[in-house]
């Protein structure tokens, strides 16, 4: 019995998450946490700008329903990001020319939406096999979400974090990248 519990704990840290997959209503492109967690609509958590519209900071947020007929720059598209395999960048769909960049200080990490550049902390590797998004400058570091969900008006959100891949529960670090 003890071996089974240990095996299950290890599988959660390194295996593929096994809970419900989100039913994302957003139009592609988007990057969504593979596990719905506790998003109440079942929409999942998409990478998102902090607050409505364009912002300098990023988080995850309930994926949003499509906005038919709205221009690409419409603020409701702020949960739409894509992974560019050539540049290795997470690129904003509505805010063209802006990319996700990790901001790292001792004991803390944040994510910003900055002009796309060759900065090393704008380079990520998406590994389809284990569904992780890893910092290219240190492939042992994964993009993940915090364990606690916070209300965000009619939606919910979770902070984005960086952490050692082997120490993060699979359900908090596995992403599905959906292209157009």
UniProtKB/TrEMBL annotation:
Look up the signal peptide feature and give its range: 1-19
Question: SUPFAM superfamilies attached here?
Answer: Ricin B-like lectins
* Protein name according to UniProt: Uncharacterized protein
- Keywords in alphabetical order, please: Signal
């Amino acid at each position: 019995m003890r071996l089974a519990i240990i095996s299950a704990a290890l599988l959660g840290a390194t295996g593929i998450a096994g809970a419900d997959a989100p039913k994302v209503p957003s139009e592609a492109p988007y990057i969504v946490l593979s596990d719905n967690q506790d998003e109440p609509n079942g929409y999942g958590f998409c990478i998102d700008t902090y607050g409505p519209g364009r912002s300098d900071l990023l988080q995850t947020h309930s994926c949003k329903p499509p906005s038919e007929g709205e221009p690409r720059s419409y603020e409701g598209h702020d949960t739409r990001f894509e992974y560019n395999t050539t540049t290795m960048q997470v690129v904003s769909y509505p805010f063209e020319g802006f990319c996700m960049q990790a901001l790292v200080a001792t004991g803390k990490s944040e994510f910003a939406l900055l002009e796309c550049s060759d900065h090393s902390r704008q380079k990520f590797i998406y590994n389809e096999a284990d569904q992780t998004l890893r910092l290219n400058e240190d492939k042992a570091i994964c993009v993940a979400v915090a364990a606690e969900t916070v209300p965000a008006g009619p939606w919910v959100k979770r902070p984005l974090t960086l952490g050692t891949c082997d120490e993060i529960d699979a359900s908090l670090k596995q992403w599905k990248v959906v292209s157009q």
